Amino acid sequence: xxxxxxxxxxxxKHIKTVVDCLSSGxxxxxxxxxxxxxxxxxxxxxxVERICRIKNIDPAKANLSFICNNLSDxxxxxxxxxxPTFRLLKNHIPGPFTFILPASKExxxxxxxxxxxxxxxxxxxLIALEIIKALGHPILSSSLPGDMVEDYTDxxxxxxxxxxxxxxxxxxxxxxxxxxxxIDMTHDVPEITRQGAGEFTH
Length: 202
Hints:
This protein is of the alpha/beta class. It has 6 helices and 10 strands, in the order E-H-E-E-H-E-H-H-E-E-H-E-H-E-E-E. The protein has a 10-stranded mixed β-sheet, sandwiched between helices. Helix 1 (12-23) crosses helix 5.
């Protein structure tokens, strides 16, 4: 299904359609403040596995991340956030950043890396935030496979390519072409591991 949701005034009934799909273990493609990505309920391991199958990656080796609604949500899934780290996160969210942080016990096992870390984001995109708010907890954030980034800006084209593999493609308008900037926060000094759309300052 291709579902058009207004980017500035998301229709509650459409958000509910997406949330009902996620709650029942479905998978979606949705817009973030960077590129369109796969999403599912983080507490549905079979849905996470299904996305990994589409991407042809092993869940145990994949560096999976998910998006939160706000800073308090984020601090629930990351453990022992120091005051300087908290301030730094506060200065950069919402925005096009993925922060690698030590995973708390709230993070489902399938999503933790071997180093017991997790990638967390708070995107500056109302559709994504409204979905999370209505669902009541985060959703997976995983990029679409391959190198056809230009194709992945157009929801109609995305639906042509992936429509049979996912339950809903959310049309929130033309997407971006830059990925999020990834910052590893597990060391004393934050380390940029992928430079993307976000300009990180600390």
